[in-house]
């Protein structure tokens, strides 16, 4: 069980703070219970399983090895990420078990994301995309000890310079060689070079699983994965051509442009399973009927990869809010009276923004938990349910990563110039979130795919017609049904647009439809997040925790409804009085939550050891400003 953070912040995490005591007696604040922090933490981090799923990673990132190291060059920072990857491997104890445990694997990303974005990236590649792909393809028949011991780091080569979101059209080829029974891996054109894999010599010897088009006697059999050694202790192997790309935003990673010049691979290099096996005569047998389905099965680890990207950016958002909230309590500014000093949190303009972000972060966290649990528990033989969950995972990844960007920007701005210095833990988070937005499927593209499936293949709207009479904006059920109705409104618009689009012009019809369809997806995923947050509220046994979660849920729903009030009034689902009272209702919720800011971020359980090294997260920040390590 995680323990509440000890002094100097115990006053804000379990008992009544000075700020809480300053609230006028007329404001309804429930009694403070000593267990509220544990209750919130348990709900956020999977209750009785939080130690098993999160404990090792939380302790790891709190260690000295994960302290910020100023003054490193991009190359040195990339090296540091690989050294930390070995520490992760030690903490995992059993790498294969980690790969098979989606809860622990995604949790790893939640805790490493905010401490080292480069580590979060290379860990996702090594464990999920590389080892995961091997294990999903008759991996039990291979000796994986070089990879599970980190004797060799695994990388994943799929995206090409000219094929990103249309990677199914990739051009790298692996031609079956009848003379040897093996394959010849080749990059046929500059546009087919693999784009952005971490294939440099940084981090030691590496092997890759390479997505390539299988050719047998010149006939295209579809895209499969091939295990390919890239380098050893002496350098890159013959035929493997690697060029380092320029540094990108965020924490440095050794991204490269990689190509193959007729590299010979043994027969066992091809990763096989029921979706595709090649016999010794070059005959392919498959349980799937077409090349696209075989490709999607080959790169199936991308689905768990989306969960990992959501998790990494989710951890970044929670850490950013923790740092910004602590700083807001420490930073004193002039009050309304001469000589008076008050914390930034005394101002509604400051704590209101943090609370709206906090409500979103709680909804993001509970959505992530819900989606992960659904994926872990689902029946893989039920293809309809699998496809539904793959779509939900995709839209959740888009929403969580986009919201993480908004939250990290907000948190940085609330810390002013202090937030610009890397030592204060905020300035690189937005750049790292950007990587999550694009990785494992660009957000807009995967939302468009989901939208095309949901226009007619998805039921929307509340279970019962929503009638506004006698209901107010504190009614969670009413707010939830209003958001469901907004989804239904946008779905109907998308359907009308698709039916009324130009005949004989599929692209033209979709162009007419896509705007409304994307709005439908956006409302849908926010509704899923609200449902997950509301379900967590129902599991609460502590009265104060229930008050806090219900208030956060109301605040979250009101924020989501704001842009849809016109449609809801037009549909007769909201009254003018509802809309006129929306602002005042939100302000009342913010006022009631403001005294509990520190409790709410305390439940995120960012390690105190980590926070102690962030100057602005501590009361003595003025005594240790962000100074250069140089003497001049």
Topology:
Blueprint: H1 10-13, H2 18-21, H3 36-44, H4 50-61, H5 74-92, H6 95-100, H7 102-112, H8 117-136, H9 145-148, E1 153-157, E2 173-177, E3 182-186, E4 194-195, E5 206-216, E6 219-229, E7 231-232, E8 235-236, E9 240-244, E10 256-260, E11 263-265, E12 277-278, E13 284-285, H10 291-298, H11 301-330, E14 332-334, E15 341-343, H12 348-377, H13 383-414, H14 429-438, H15 443-454, H16 476-500, H17 506-538, H18 543-561, H19 565-570, H20 576-593, H21 597-602, H22 608-612
Parallel strand pairs: 1-5, 2-5
Antiparallel strand pairs: 2-3, 3-11, 4-10, 5-6, 7-8, 9-10, 12-13, 14-15
Helix pairs in contact: 4-7, 5-8, 7-8, 7-11, 8-11, 11-12, 11-13, 11-14, 12-13, 12-17, 12-18, 12-20, 13-14, 13-15, 13-17, 15-17, 16-17, 16-18, 17-18, 18-20
Summarize the structure.
With 632 residues, the protein is an alpha+beta fold. Helices cover 51% and strands 10% of the residues.
Radius of gyration: 26 Å
DSSP summary: helix tally: 22
Q: What's the total number of strands?
A: 15
SSE class? alpha+beta
- Name the overall outline: globular
Mean pLDDT over all positions: 91
Main sheet characteristics:
6 strands, mixed
């Amino acid at each position: 069980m995680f323990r509440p953070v000890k002094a100097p912040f115990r006053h804000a995490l379990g008992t009544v703070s000075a700020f809480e005591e300053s609230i006028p007696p007329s404001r309804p604040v429930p009694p403070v219970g000593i267990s509220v922090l544990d209750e919130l933490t348990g709900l956020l981090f999977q209750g009785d399983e939080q130690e098993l799923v999160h404990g090792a990673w939380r302790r790891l990132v709190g260690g000295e090895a994960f302290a910020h190291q100023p003054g490193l060059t991009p190359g040195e920072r990339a090296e540091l990420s690989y050294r930390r990857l070995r520490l992760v491997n030690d903490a995992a104890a059993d790498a294969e078990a980690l790969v098979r445990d989606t809860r622990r694997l995604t949790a790893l990303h939640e805790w490493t994301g905010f401490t080292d974005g480069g580590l979060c990236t290379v860990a996702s590649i090594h464990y999920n995309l590389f080892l995961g792909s091997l294990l999903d393809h008759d991996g039990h028949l291979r000796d994986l000890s070089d990879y599970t011991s980190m004797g060799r780091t695994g990388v994943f080569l799929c995206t090409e310079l000219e094929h990103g979101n249309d990677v199914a059209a990739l051009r790298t080829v692996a031609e079956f060689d009848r003379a040897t029974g093996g394959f010849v891996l080749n990059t046929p054109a500059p546009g087919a070079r693999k784009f952005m894999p971490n294939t440099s010599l940084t981090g030691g010897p590496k092997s890759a699983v390479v997505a390539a088009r299988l050719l047998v006697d010149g006939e295209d059999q579809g895209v499969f994965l091939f295990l390919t050694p890239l380098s050893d202790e002496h350098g890159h192997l013959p035929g493997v051509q690697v060029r380092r790309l320029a540094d990108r935003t965020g924490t440095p990673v050794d991204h490269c442009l990689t190509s193959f010049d007729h590299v010979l691979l043994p027969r066992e290099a091809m990763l096989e399973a029921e979706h595709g096996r090649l016999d010794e005569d070059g005959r392919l047998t498959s349980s799937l009927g077409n090349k696209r389905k075989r490709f999607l099965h080959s790169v199936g680890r991308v689905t768990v990869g989306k969960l990992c990207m959501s998790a990494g950016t989710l951890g970044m958002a929670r850490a950013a809010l923790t740092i910004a909230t602590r700083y807001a309590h420490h930073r004193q500014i002039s009050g309304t009276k001469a000589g008076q000093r008050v914390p930034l949190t005394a101002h509604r303009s400051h704590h209101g923004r943090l609370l709206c972000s906090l409500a979103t972060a709680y909804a993001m966290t509970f959505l992530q938990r819900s989606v992960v649990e659904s994926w872990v528990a689902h029946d893989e033989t039920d293809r309809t349910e699998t496809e539904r969950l793959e779509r939900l995972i995709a839209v959740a990844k888009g929403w969580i990563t986009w919201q993480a960007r908004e939250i990290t920007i907000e948190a940085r701005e609330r810390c002013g110039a202090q937030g610009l210095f890397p030592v204060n833990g905020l300035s690189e988070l937005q750049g790292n979130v950007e990587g999550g937005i694009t990785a494992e499927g660009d957000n807009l593209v995967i939302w468009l795919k989901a939208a095309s499936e949901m226009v007619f293949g998805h039921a929307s709207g509340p279970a019962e017609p929503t009638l506004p009479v006698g209901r107010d904006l504190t009614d969670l059920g009413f707010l939830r049904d209003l958001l469901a109705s907004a989804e239904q409104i946008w779905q109907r618009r998308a359907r009308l647009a698709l039916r009324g689009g130009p005949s004989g012009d599929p692209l033209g019809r979709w162009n007419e439809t896509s705007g409304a369809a994307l709005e439908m997806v956006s409302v849908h995923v926010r509704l899923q997040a609200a449902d997950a947050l509301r379900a967590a509220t129902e599991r609460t046994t502590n009265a104060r925790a229930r008050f806090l979660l219900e208030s956060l849920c109301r605040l979250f729903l009101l924020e989501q409804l704001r842009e849809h009030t016109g449609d809801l009034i037009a549909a007769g689902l909201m009254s003018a009085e509802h809309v006129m009272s929306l602002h005042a209702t939100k302000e009342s919720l913010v006022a009631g939550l403001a005294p509990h800011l520190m409790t709410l971020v305390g439940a995120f359980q960012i390690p105190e050891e980590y926070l102690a090294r962030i100057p602005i997260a501590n009361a003595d920040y003025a005594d240790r400003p962000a100074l250069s390590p140089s003497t001049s």
